[in-house]
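I have been asked to look over a protein record a colleague put together. Alongside the sequence sits a line of tokens, each denoting a local backbone shape. Please read both lines and tell me whether the tokens look consistent with the sequence. I do not need a full report, just your reasoning and any doubts. I have pasted the whole thing underneath without changing anything.
>
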Amino acid sequence: MLGNPFTGKRRLIWLHCLVWTAILVISFFSMLPADGAGRSLLSAGNSCLWYAFVIYGNISWLYPRFYQKKQYGLYILFAAILLLIGGLGRGYLSVCLRNPSFAAAPHWLNTRSNTGFLLPVTTVFILSYIFRLAMAYFVVKQQSEEILLQRSQFELRLLKAQVQPHFLFNTLNTIYYEAYMEAPRAALLIGRLSAIMRYFIDHSSKEWVSLSTEIEFLENYIALEKIRINPEPSIEFSRNVDADRDVPPMLLMPFVENIFKHGIDKITGVNRIWLSLDEDDHYLIFRTGNSINRHADPRRTEGLGLTNLRQRLQLLYGNDFEMHTTTGGTDFIASLKFPLV
């Protein structure tokens, strides 16, 4: 099945093409009565070419590279160069196109005509800020639609997974009480499994959950993973945060899951894991570390879970987050930093 050509980046490309087509058509018909079809088409095409050069040169190169980095002097200098190239280029190309085919006598540029060509590109340069705002609006709108789509797909998958949840919880509670008298440790693990399942059903589809709920979920998951490893790994989990703050659900889980999936050395049995949660200037900083599994597959690359996490963070926070994985000495270290609400 063919994809919809008006979604995602294609929509933005189509929008750009539509805008420039409209400008070309309007320019052509505005010059048609005085200049004729051929000359009007060449002049309109030439103007659109240099207007696009000025607009995209500003919003795609000058503005992000100099203005946003507060290098205002360089921005003004290169903007002036851009306008000179755009204005004079438009003028000289116009003369080169017109003289051979349309001019009764060759026409050459002078100071007055050069000024006449510079003024329109200067106006276009100013209007490029409006063009950039329009582009930013459609990018934000597109990201919002992607977030809504991902959330809808996530909720749909969750609904499909909810097979009689109350029956499952009631059954687990019954097993918990039956096991408590004979095997308290097994009963405790059943309770943790029940809490994890309840998290998935009650909280994972929400937009925000409390940090305390997320921490409890991680603790339950770690406790269940520990029983599969013999001998049990050494695990330290330090927390220096306000647990009442809200965060999007399941942002921290991929790091922890990655440790137990790829970082456990079952051959030597020597496994050390540490986790830390800190708050710094309204940012949450989550760090994990584990002793390197020397017997892991050397061809293993960054897991799909971390790739999906990075994409989700970009949708939620744009570029206002940091995510790194490094190897330091004998430890594999991962860190995540994102804003708190």
User: Anything to note?
Assistant: The longest helix spans residues 111-161. Residues 169 and 198 are 8 Å apart (CA to CA). Confidence is low (pLDDT under 50) at residues 1-7, 102-106.
